[in-house]
User: Which sequence fits this backbone?
């Protein structure tokens, strides 16, 4: 199989991740933070080790501010519902995913929401963002990279602007974690939501919310922390305040190995590899009759998430053809980000999305281009 659906979840996972998941069930089988027996203590230490690794990876000073979640959607929901109160104003971009747009919509009309527009390549303007700020703006949320067309948004400038206005900045790093270097302190990012199962190469069912300083987020779920059992109220300290119930230990152990794997290869090397494949793909697509690349046409300011349309063929038919005839996995239609398609001019039928990972090769991209030419 030629797997080019890495924006949905990366596959395959590195062997060390698979081994860590299996070993976690042998050696870290106790419930951490509950009991005082040896295996429970060893498991708690393992969890803390993973928090330290993640904190270090994202430039976060306090490992206790790493909150494990089941995916990026849960992390975004915990942040959005935990911060915004009636009377607040929030800003997101039209390039954001439903995992941002829907929780924000659910908060309205108590919370007013403004949508920052994008151009035909998915790019946004910081001046436009500044113009949307109001005295009651509490939170700005932005995807780092569009999951539709791979455009990288100017999140550092946006975070700086928010910092200067005393507004919290929440980064959706779903398509950038593990692909672009992120230092939360240096970049003045208050909160970061990320999946563990995409560019960090951990298992599905893992996500993260990293909180840069002492913010009191109202928990959306309560109970099951293993701490302060006499108290009815949810503990105030992180991560217990926001982590409820038994943790996904196999997921945490796998994620730790995913991050070690990335650290060993280096994010810059991963970025360069994906850029090389992307350049080849963009060039090849630009020479196929009736195909239009959606978003940026070269590798500047983008990642290896590439969308295209065909003037005469339906995008679902293209993905089905690629899968049935060549075992090539791509994704079609709206990718949970319909507003992005309105800006990109693809709201009628969506796009075919090809997304790279570290395991993809140039020969696989060549086969994809050959398959597309053959189809036509
Ligand atoms: C930009 C963006 N945000 C959020 C999500 C949701 O991630 P998860 O599936 O881990 O909840 C995705 C998933 O594709 C995404 O691309």
Assistant:
């Amino acid at each position: 199989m030629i797997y080019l659906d890495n924006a949905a979840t990366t596959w395959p996972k590195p062997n060390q991740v698979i081994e860590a998941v299996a070993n976690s069930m042998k050696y870290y089988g106790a419930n951490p933070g509950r009991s005082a027996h040896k295996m429970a203590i060893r498991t708690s230490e393992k969890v803390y080790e993973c928090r330290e690794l993640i904190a270090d990876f994202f430039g976060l000073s306090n490992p206790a501010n790493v909150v494990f979640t089941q995916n990026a959607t849960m992390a975004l929901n915990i942040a959005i519902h935990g911060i915004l109160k009636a009377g607040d104003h929030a800003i997101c971009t039209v390039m954001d995913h439903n995992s941002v747009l829907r929780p924000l919509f659910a908060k309205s009309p108590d919370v007013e929401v403004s949508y920052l527009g994008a151009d035909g390549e998915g790019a946004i303007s910081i001046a436009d963002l500044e113009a949307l700020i109001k005295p009651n703006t509490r939170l700005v949320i932005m995807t780092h990279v569009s999951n539709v067309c791979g455009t990288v948004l100017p999140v550092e400038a946006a975070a700086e602007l928010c910092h200067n206005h005393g507004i919290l900045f929440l980064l959706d790093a779903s398509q950038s974690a593990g692909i672009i270097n992120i230092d939360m302190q240096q970049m003045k990012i208050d909160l970061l939501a990320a999946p563990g199962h995409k560019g960090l190469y951990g298992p599905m069912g893992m996500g993260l919310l990293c909180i840069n300083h002492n913010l009191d987020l109202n928990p959306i779920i309560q109970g099951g922390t293993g701490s302060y059992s006499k108290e009815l109220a949810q503990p105030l300290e992180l991560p217990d305040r926001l982590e409820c119930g038994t943790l996904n230990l196999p997921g945490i152990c796998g994620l730790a190995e995913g991050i070690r794997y990335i650290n060993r290869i280096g994010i810059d090397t991963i970025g360069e590899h994906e850029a090389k494949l992307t350049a080849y793909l963009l060039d090849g697509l630009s020479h196929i009759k009736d195909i239009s690349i959606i978003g940026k046409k070269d590798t500047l300011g983008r990642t290896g998430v590439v969308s295209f349309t065909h003037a005469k063929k339906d995008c679902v038919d293209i993905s089905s053809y690629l899968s049935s005839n060549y075992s090539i996995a791509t994704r079609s239609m709206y990718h949970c980000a319909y507003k992005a398609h309105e800006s990109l001019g693809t709201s009628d039928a969506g796009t075919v999305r090809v997304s790279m990972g570290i395991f993809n090769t140039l020969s696989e991209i060549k086969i994809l281009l050959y398959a597309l030419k053959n189809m036509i």
